[in-house]
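Input sequence (96 aa), recorded before submission:
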Amino acid sequence: MDAPADWPFDDPPNVATITTRPVMDGTGWIALVSHDEDDGGWQFVGPEGPLEDQAMVVGLGSVLKRDASIAELADLPLGWRAWRAGPDQPWQRESR
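Predicted structure, token format:
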């Protein structure tokens, strides 16, 4: 799947990511993003944490459609994470 010309990530829109049902159904918001060093995977977790029974695998493009602010994190290095205190708060970053 080719990415649109304005696609911000190095990974394609259909790359599998891990998130939670509340993030994707709109009842939650993304509080934590990690870009895993071991496999380059992305995780998008709400303030409720990584609830295993709510886990979902979805394409990166679907997460970006749900929350366009993650485009600011497209350059998040491998092994780093970003978090915010609320859905309208700025992203903070750190190496893990």
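Checked by second reader. The CA atoms of residues 82 and 93 lie 4 Å apart.
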